[in-house]
Amino acid sequence: MSLINSSTKGVFVIACTPFAEDGALDGESIGRMVDFYYEKGADGLTILGMMGEAPKLTQAESIEVTKLTLKRSEGKPVVVGVSALGLAAIGELTKAAMDLGAAGVMVAPPSALRTDEQIITYYRNVVDTVGADVPVVLQDFPLSTGVQISSKTLGVIFEAHPSIVMLKHEDWPGLQKITDLREAEAKGRRRTSILCGNAGVFLTEEMQRGADGAMTGFAYPEMMVDVVRLSNEGRYEAAQDLFDAYLPLMRYEQQPGLGLAVRKHVLAKRGAIASATQRRPGPALSVLAVKEIEKLIERQVHKLDLLRGRT
């Protein structure tokens, strides 16, 4: 399997973790889900992220999910989330993942970090722990971690550690950060791949600012694939028109605390996984919420039909 690098582009879908109704890992659905994502055009996958319910898994289960995903991916790149409170756990899961053939690992900063120096030191320790030969994705998601990382601090980290090859950008607001990072590269700082999260809700603007693609788990990955492709072709209006058809459902999925339930419901409806079950604790969708989702999907289909008829 090829490793990710500072030029990696495209769509890496943040995969959910399928569970059976009793909360056990659903290995069969993992295979089905992997096939679904690649059939929809994904360039790679990222597993065991925040929306992959990684904190609810044991270390052994995390390794099992990694093993099953990599086997089904058949050489396509898979990034493994290894974020943990302690460096020892990060090191252990990283070694297991890379030995199994992962393309790299993703690490978010722990919530206790506050100063620039603490953040810089933390990622130095991460690289020392996993090894400088392991490609690392730095996850910048302050709405979840509470850790604010400035463009300047990111630049210091990227320059100091060439193995940190990618930024998973999901600061909000954060479009200016993409611009700042690309401007710094134009002045001589080494290049870093930028794939964006936030469920894709800013993807059209992010691509125009210089992002390389998306790393998020919206239940219609084909939209992200097409938006990235159209943007790379310079067809920004077409990308925006397509994006707009999906935006209402994306907005609904962005509800804090409920988003994963929405995403899993849609994935189950699309046949990607057998059950929308989350491992406890996790919120359940109300009957009314399900009706709202169904209505949004119905309207989405209608808008896409109109769009295709026009083009």
TrEMBL record:
Q: What EC number(s) does this enzyme carry?
A: 4.3.3.7
**Keywords of this entry:** Lyase
Q: What class of enzyme is it?
A: lyase
The terms describing its cellular component in GO are: cytosol
Chain sites annotated for binding pyruvate: M215
Entry's Gene Ontology molecular function annotations: 4-hydroxy-tetrahydrodipicolinate synthase activity
- One Pfam family of this chain: DHDPS
* InterPro entries with a match to the protein in the record: Aldolase_TIM (IPR013785), DapA-like (IPR002220)
Entry similarity comment: Belongs to the DapA family.
Q: What is this protein called?
A: Putative dihydrodipicolinate synthetase
Naturally occurring in which organism (per UniProt) = Agrobacterium tumefaciens str. B6
